[in-house]
């Protein structure tokens, strides 16, 4: 069974803005952030707009726990590839592989999702930037050990969202996109 969730239009203002003449001379700064996971892969697509960074799309690719592993990774691959083809980001940013010594299986499962996400980006000739979770937390909250709640609040403030980005996979994906955007030379204010 395939399950795919995105934000509803009423909770997310999707805006495609015309770039100013100064911005149009710049290379594309559209960035897709992806928070990989086998159960839920969060994504967030951002782009610079007049005086702020605009969220173009966000959501979660949810896979059913009853699906076999190969079906879950295929679903993640297909949906990420569809997002890349539809949005043409300059960069895909995803969380680097990490693990706590108590939970090595988590890293192995996350590696499956990361692998097919990297494959989809490669198939579409999109550069991939992998960032450590602490680096992303520092970039958006100024604290490398920030909580999920602190990340949600910082992302809400930086993107001028009317509500907290939920679930946390979406907030993490938007934080990844913001950090990648900053690395490309964009300003986070």
Q: Could you explain the architecture of this structure?
A:
- This protein is α/β, with parallel strands linked by helices and 189 residues long.
- It is built from 6 helices and 6 strands; from the N terminus they run E-H-E-E-E-H-E-H-E-H-H-H.
- The chain has a 6-stranded mixed β-sheet with strand order 1-4-3-2-5-6.
- Helix 2 packs across helix 3 (104-123), helix 4 (133-141) packs across helix 6 (168-183) and helix 5 packs across helix 6.
- The longest helix is centred in the middle third of the chain and has 20 residues, at 104-123.
- The protein is globular, with a radius of gyration of 16 Å.
Alpha-carbon distance between the two ends: 41 Å
User: Which term fits the overall shape?
Assistant: globular
Largest sheet: 6 strands, mixed
Radius of gyration using CA atoms only: 16 Å
**Runs with pLDDT <50, length 5+?**
1-26
Strand content: 15-25%
- Work out the helicity level: 40-55%
Q: How would you name the CATH homologous superfamily?
A: Ribonuclease H-like superfamily/Ribonuclease H
Overall CATH architecture: 2-Layer Sandwich
Count of discrete domains: 1
The strands making up the biggest β-sheet line up spatially as 1-4-3-2-5-6
Count up the helices.
6
SSE ordering = EHEEEHEHEHHH
The name of the CATH topology is: Nucleotidyltransferase, domain 5
Category by helix and strand content: alpha/beta
Overall pLDDT, averaged?
84
CATH class, anyone?
Alpha Beta
């Amino acid at each position: 069974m395939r399950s795919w969730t995105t934000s509803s239009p009423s909770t997310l203002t999707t805006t495609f803005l015309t770039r100013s003449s100064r911005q149009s001379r710049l290379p594309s700064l559209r960035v897709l952030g992806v928070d990989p996971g086998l159960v839920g892969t969060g994504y967030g697509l951002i782009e610079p707009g007049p005086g702020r960074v605009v969220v173009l799309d966000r959501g979660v690719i949810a896979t059913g726990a009853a699906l076999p592993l190969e079906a879950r990774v295929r679903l993640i691959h297909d949906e990420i590839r569809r997002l890349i083809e539809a949005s043409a980001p300059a960069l895909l940013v995803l969380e680097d592989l990490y693990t706590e010594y108590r939970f090595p299986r988590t890293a192995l499962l996350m590696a499956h999702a990361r692998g097919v996400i990297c494959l989809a980006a490669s198939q579409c000739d999109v550069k991939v930037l992998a960032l450590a979770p602490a680096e992303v937390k520092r970039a958006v909250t100024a604290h490398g050990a920030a909580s999920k709640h602190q990340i949600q609040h910082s992302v809400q403030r930086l993107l001028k969202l009317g509500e907290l980005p939920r679930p946390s996979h979406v907030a993490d994906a938007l934080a990844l996109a913001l950090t990648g955007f900053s690395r490309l030379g964009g300003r986070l204010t």
